[in-house]
Amino acid sequence: MKKTIMLAIFVLSLFACLVLSSSAVSINDGKDAMVAQFQSGKSSLDYVYYSPIKNENDSARYPLVVWLHGNSSGDYPGHQVRNSCIYNWSSEEYQKRFKGTQGAYLLLPRCPTGTFAPVAWGVERKSALKSTIDSFVESNRDTVDTSRIYIGGYSMGGKMTIIMASSYPDYFAAAFPMSPVYEPSRSELKTMGQMPVWLFVNKNDKYLSLDYNTVVKPNWKYFSSNCAFPQESRLTVFSTFYHAEGVENAGDVHNTWDAVTYDMFMKSGEVYYASETVNANGEKVNLSFPNGVISWLSSQSLENGESGVSLNIIQMLIMFIKRLFSLIFVI
Fold this sequence. Notes:
With 331 residues, the protein is α/β, with parallel strands linked by helices. It is built from eleven helices and nine strands. Helix 6 links the parallel strand 5 (144-154) and strand 6.
């Protein structure tokens, strides 16, 4: 009898371990299964989050991705995860793309929008958002890698990404604004240049603050000239949009995040159609499956800062020497 009980306990324990170690579902399980993995929380703002913890003894430190929704996705708690395909990043396939840990926390704070919440993402929400992120990090202080906290957002959330990245350049390891409905100041661009940034825009976007020729190009040029990480910083420009299945969606000129939530790859594994990516040196970046946004993000760390600054100093010295030689030869 005692052996039977011990065997039953062993089987149950083994089953529990298997369940805990399979925290991520497959992308093939569908939207509802992925969304169901997110848990709710509340600090200064309410939020939902995905935890990569595999079992109760998991002592790894995971990166944290903060995802900021757009104006139409904060109507009710949980709306921010259901209304964009960021739930893809909670799937087993996408979690494995995070370098080093094969997993990451996903934190989706909510900014209430609509008739009864006139204050959208903006400087008025900056303190509340930072407090919410800090509170989440503190609650998971044993398993969050504080040197790898990333922030990204789309449309209105892209605006807030720029505000947060330029306000706390020593806190975030990288930023990825998508179609930010915002024209940043030169000061914000210069401060944000202290970290790697990947900007996503459509050159036919109709928002005035996103006009490709009058806003995006000159701002990207200024950012690039003040960027400490020119090789790591990127700009992706779309000319039209496609669904990940390959069907063209020519009527959409704003939803760059649809491509980002699929990690910049079609379901076939090809690089997302009608897009071109360059770094801050103006050099073309050729993406290859499965190394997309997730791979780029998880390669960035605050611990890389010293080497990045050193590299920038070396580049400046090389430029100075070249100019000196050119002057000598002219004389």
